[in-house]
């Protein structure tokens, strides 16, 4: 049974079928990515990937904060081997979200930092509150990005800007994130989920298998 990650579906008004799913992170106060949270993300993402009725998925951390990244208090209790396993599990969670064969939208509120930013980057688009903060902050804790975070960041903003963010760990406000290409749309903080839902509804007219094939086309050489 999942404790911190849940999946909710909204129904298509025309057919009354659940066509849009929301993967909800709920581990107050910061949605830190503990090992348990990462395991639950993997399970939820794999289950969503098998759903044939879905047109799109929204990834949401609630109205306060998307995710502050890996849980540092937990990491500080781990030995070297356990820490390496935790980093691999976090990477697996990010990759599992990226592999969901449907359009995915991260609805970002508050903060998306460290591995939380990597998780947001695993989605196809990012809708953000105009007061949100972003950062590849791992270096501030003596760590490097996991889950392909640096590679995805470079794909979003370009290699030079990505290196600046990764090597400094500096915070980026929402307007700079939009200018960099880190996010795709800015809205008022209270409208983040609704804006993501509006974007997800654009895909309701397309068969799920076609959407899956279209997404897979980006992985081909």
TrEMBL record:
UniProt KW keywords: Lipid metabolism, Lyase
For biological process, the GO terms are: fatty acid beta-oxidation
Reactions this protein catalyses: a (3S)-3-hydroxyacyl-CoA = a (2E)-enoyl-CoA + H2O; a 4-saturated-(3S)-3-hydroxyacyl-CoA = a (3E)-enoyl-CoA + H2O
Q: Sorted alphabetically, which CDD domains does this protein's record hold?
A: crotonase-like
Superkingdom classification of source: Bacteria
Q: What is its EC number?
A: 4.2.1.17
Gene Ontology MF terms in the entry: 3-hydroxyacyl-CoA dehydratase activity
NCBIfam families from the entry? PRK05869.1
What family does the Swiss-Prot or TrEMBL record give for this protein? Belongs to the enoyl-CoA hydratase/isomerase family.
Its job: Could possibly oxidize fatty acids using specific components.
Q: What is this protein called?
A: Probable enoyl-CoA hydratase EchA17
């Amino acid at each position: 049974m999942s404790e911190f990650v849940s999946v909710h579906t909204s129904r298509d008004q025309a057919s009354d079928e659940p066509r849009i799913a929301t993967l909800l992170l709920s581990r107050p106060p910061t949605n830190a990515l503990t090992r348990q949270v990462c395991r639950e993300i993997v399970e939820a993402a794999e289950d969503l990937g098998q759903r044939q009725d879905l047109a799109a998925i929204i990834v949401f951390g609630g109205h306060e904060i998307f995710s502050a990244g890996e849980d540092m208090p937990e990491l500080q209790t781990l030995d070297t081997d356990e820490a390496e396993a935790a980093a691999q599990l976090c990477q697996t969670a990010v990759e599992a979200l990226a592999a969901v064969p449907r359009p995915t939208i991260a609805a970002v509120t508050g903060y998306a930092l460290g591995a939380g930013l990597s998780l947001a980057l695993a989605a196809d688009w990012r809708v953000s509150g105009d007061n949100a903060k972003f950062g590849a902050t791992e270096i501030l804790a003596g760590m490097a990005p996991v889950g392909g975070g640096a590679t995805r960041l470079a794909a979003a903003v370009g290699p030079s800007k990505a290196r600046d963010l990764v090597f400094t760990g500096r915070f980026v406000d929402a307007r700079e994130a939009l200018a960099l290409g880190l996010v795709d749309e800015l809205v008022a903080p209270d409208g983040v989920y609704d804006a993501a839902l509006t974007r997800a509804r654009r895909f309701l007219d397309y068969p799920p298998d076609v959407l899956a094939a279209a997404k897979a086309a980006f992985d081909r050489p």
